[in-house]
C-alpha cells in the first residue's frame, strides 16, 4: 500500500518544479499546451542561468527529503523521473553550457510557427503571441552572440549558420504566407514589422557566426566523461562506454548479415549496393513527394487495426507538409501538439524536399532516400505506429502524473519510433516483401551508424570525414545524405538514442514476454509500454517487470 501523504508531497513538489521550469523556458510551457506562457522567449543571460541552477539544486535537495520506498511502483517511477528531470537540466546548464558551446540547442526557441499553424485560440490572439515572441528575438540573439564561446568547432558553426539562416528565411517567407487572408491590418502591420526585425537580427547573428569560422578548429567532441553523464542523467543508463560500444557493434553486424541474406534472396547475382541502388531509383518526383506520402498513411493505419498490433485511440490524422527551412538537416519529422493541449489537435508530418539550388545529382541522391519502400518505413516511424500514435496514447490514454507528461526520454521517444519499423516487419505487414525488409534494415543501419559515429566522434576522435565514410560504407548512403548525418552528430551526440532506445525496448519486450508466458500479447505490451508517457527505459523496467533490476541491455 503506497503512502498517499508522501505521494501528495511529491506531487506538490513536482508541480512547483515544473512551473519553475516553464518560467525559465516559457517556450516549453507554451508548446506543451500551457498558453499563459505564449509570446515569451527564455532569458538565458548568465545571471538568470545562475539563479536557475540554484533553484535546481534546491529542488534536488527537497526531493531527496521525500522518501520513495513507501510508494507503489508507478509512483516510484514518477519520483525517479523528477529526480532525473532536475539532474538532466543541471547537467545541461552546468556542464554542457549550450549557450556558450552549441548554438543549435537554442534555435528551437525561435520557432513561432505553431502560433499560426495550430488552432488553439482565435487567430488574432495567436498572431499577437507570435508578434510578442518576435519582438524579443533581437535581445535574445544579442545574449547568444555575447556569451557564445570563441572555441566553437567548425562543424557546429556550419550547421548553426545553415539553421539560423533557415529561420530567417522562415520569418521572411513562410510566416508571411501563413497569415495570408488575415485582414486586421493593425495586428498584421505589427506582426510584419516584428518578423522583419527578427529576421535582420538573425542575419546579424549569422554574420557573427561566419566571422567565427575564420580560424575555427575542427574540434567539437564533448568527451567521454560528459558523454557518460549525458546517458546517466538523460536516460538513467549507467553502463561503461566500452560495453555500450560493443552492444552497438553487435547490432550493426547483425543487421549487415541480415541485409546480405535478404539481398541474396532477391538476386544472388547482384551485390547489396547494386540492389540498394536499384531500390533507391524507384522514388517519387520532387513534386510528388508530399502528395504521395499523404496517400500511403491510411493504408498503414488500417494495417495496425487489422493486425491488432496496438490501440489507436483517436480518429485524429496528421497533415503532411514540407519541413520548415530551419529544420532541413532532418529527412522527416513529426510535430505533435503538446500533451497538455486542450483544444488544438493538428499534428504535422514534415517531409524534407529537395532544394531549388541543388544539382540534378544532389536531388537524385536525396530522393533515393525517399524511395517508395523507404518512405513507408519512414512513415511507420513518424506516424503509424511511431511518433504520432505515441502522441495519441499520451493525449487520449489514461491520466498520468504531470511529471510523466512533461519529462520525456530521447531514447524512449526515438527508440519507440525506430522499434516500430522492425516490429511491423516481424508481422504479416511485411510478408513476402523482401524489398521492404531491405529498406527497414537500411534504416536500422543508418541508426547503427548514428550510434557508433556519435560515440566515435565524441569519445574516440573520429572526424566528420571518417563518420561520413562510415555512413557510406555501412548504411549504403550517398555522399550528400551521409555527410548530413555525420554533421548532425557533431551538435546532437544524443542521436545514438534511436538504436539505444530500440535495443532497450526489444530487451524489455523479451523479458516481459518471458514473465507473462501464455498471457503475453504484442498489443498488450505496446499499450502497456505507452501508458507511462516516455520515461527513461531503465526506470520502466521496475514497473513492467517483476525482475525490474535486471540489465536494460
Helix-and-strand structural type: mainly alpha
Q: Given the C-alpha coordinates, what overall shape results? A: globular
Total helical segments: 24
**In angstroms, what is the radius of gyration?**
23 Å
Low-confidence stretches: none
Number of strands: 3
User: What is the terminal separation in angstroms?
Assistant: 31 Å
| Percent in strands | under 5%
- Main pleated sheet: 3 strands, mixed
List keywords for this structure.
three-stranded mixed beta sheet, single chain, 24 helices, mainly alpha, 3% strand, 553 residues
Structure description:
With 553 residues, the protein is mainly alpha-helical. The chain is 66% helix and 3% strand. It is built from 24 helices and 3 strands. The protein has helices spanning 4-24, 26-32, 46-64, 73-96, 98-101, 113-117, 123-147, 154-178, 185-213, 224-235, 241-266, 272-280, 289-307, 360-368, 372-382, 387-396, 402-406, 410-425, 434-459, 464-474, 479-491, 497-516, 522-530, 537-544, and strands at 318-322, 332-335, 347-351. A 3-stranded mixed sheet has the order 1-3-2, covered by helices on one side. Helix 11 packs antiparallel against helix 19 and helix 22 packs parallel to helix 24 (537-544). The protein is globular and about 65 Å long. The model has no long low-confidence stretch (mean pLDDT 94).
Amino acid at each position: 500500500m503506497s503512502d498517499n501523504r508522501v505521494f501528495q508531497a511529491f506531487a506538490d513538489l513536482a508541480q512547483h518544479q515544473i512551473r519553475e521550469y516553464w518560467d525559465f523556458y516559457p517556450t516549453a510551457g507554451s508548446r506543451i499546451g500551457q498558453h499563459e506562457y505564449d509570446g515569451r522567449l527564455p532569458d538565458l543571460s548568465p545571471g538568470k542561468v545562475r539563479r536557475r541552477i540554484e533553484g535546481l539544486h534546491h529542488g534536488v535537495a527537497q526531493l531527496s527529503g521525500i522518501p520513495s520506498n513507501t510508494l507503489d511502483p508507478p509512483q516510484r517511477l514518477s519520483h525517479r523521473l523528477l529526480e532525473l528531470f532536475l539532474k538532466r537540466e543541471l547537467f545541461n546548464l552546468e556542464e554542457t553550457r549550450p549557450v556558450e558551446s552549441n548554438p543549435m540547442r537554442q534555435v528551437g526557441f525561435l520557432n513561432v510557427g505553431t502560433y499560426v499553424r495550430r488552432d488553439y485560440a482565435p487567430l488574432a490572439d495567436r498572431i499577437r503571441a507570435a508578434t510578442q515572441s518576435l519582438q524579443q528575438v533581437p535581445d535574445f540573439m544579442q545574449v547568444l552572440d555575447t556569451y557564445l564561446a570563441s572555441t566553437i568547432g567548425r562543424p557546429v558553426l556550419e550547421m548553426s549558420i545553415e539553421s539560423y539562416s533557415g529561420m530567417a528565411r522562415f520569418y521572411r517567407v513562410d510566416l508571411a504566407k501563413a497569415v495570408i487572408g488575415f485582414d486586421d491590418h493593425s495586428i498584421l502591420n505589427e506582426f510584419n514589422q516584428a518578423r522583419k526585425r527578427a529576421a535582420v537580427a538573425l542575419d546579424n547573428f549569422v554574420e557573427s557566426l561566419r566571422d567565427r569560422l575564420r580560424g575555427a578548429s575542427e574540434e567539437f567532441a564533448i568527451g567521454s566523461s560528459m558523454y557518460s553523464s549525458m546517458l546517466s542523467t538523460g536516460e538513467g543508463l549507467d553502463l561503461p562506454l566500452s560495453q555500450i560500444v560493443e552492444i552497438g557493434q553487435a547490432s550493426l553486424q547483425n543487421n549487415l548479415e541480415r541485409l546480405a541474406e535478404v539481398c541474396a534472396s532477391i538476386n544472388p547475382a547482384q551485390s547489396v549496393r547494386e540492389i540498394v541502388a536499384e531500390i533507391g531509383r524507384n522514388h517519387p518526383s520532387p513534386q510528388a513527394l508530399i502528395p504521395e506520402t499523404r496517400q500511403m498513411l491510411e493504408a498503414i493505419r488500417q494495417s495496425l487495426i487489422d493486425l491488432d498490433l496496438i490501440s489507436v485511440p483517436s480518429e485524429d490524422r496528421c497533415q503532411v507538409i514540407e519541413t520548415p527551412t530551419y529544420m532541413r538537416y532532418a529527412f522527416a519529422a513529426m510535430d505533435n501538439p503538446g500533451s497538455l493541449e486542450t483544444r488544438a489537435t493538428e499534428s504535422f508530418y514534415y517531409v524534407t524536399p529537395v532544394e531549388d539550388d541543388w544539382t540534378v545529382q544532389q536531388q537524385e541522391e536525396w530522393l533515393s532516400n525517399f524511395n517508395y519502400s523507404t518512405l513507408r518505413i519512414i512513415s511507420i516511424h513518424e506516424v503509424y505506429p511511431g511518433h504520432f500514435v505515441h502522441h495519441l496514447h499520451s493525449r487520449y490514454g489514461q491520466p498520468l502524473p504531470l511529471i510523466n507528461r512533461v519529462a520525456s526520454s530521447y531514447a524512449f521517444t526515438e527508440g519507440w519510433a525506430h522499434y516500430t519499423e522492425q516490429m511491423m516487419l516481424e508481422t504479416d505487414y511485411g510478408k513476402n516483401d523482401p524489398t521492404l525488409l531491405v529498406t527497414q534494415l537500411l534504416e536500422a543501419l543508418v541508426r547503427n551508424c548514428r550510434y557508433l559515429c556519435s560515440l566515435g566522434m565524441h569519445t574516440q576522435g573520429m572526424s566528420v570525414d571518417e563518420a561520413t565514410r562510415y555512413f557510406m560504407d555501412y548504411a549504403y548512403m550517398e555522399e550528400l545524405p551521409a555527410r548530413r548525418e555525420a554533421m548532425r552528430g557533431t551538435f546532437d551526440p544524443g542521436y545514438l538514442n534511436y538504436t539505444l532506445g530500440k535495443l532497450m525496448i526489444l530487451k524489455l519486450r523479451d523479458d516481459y514476454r518471458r514473465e507473462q508466458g501464455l498471457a503475453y500479447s504484442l498489443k498488450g505490451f505496446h499499450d502497456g509500454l505507452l501508458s507511462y508517457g516516455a520515461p527513461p527505459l531503465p526506470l520502466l523496467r521496475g514497473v513492467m517487470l517483476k525482475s525490474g533490476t535486471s540489465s536494460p541491455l
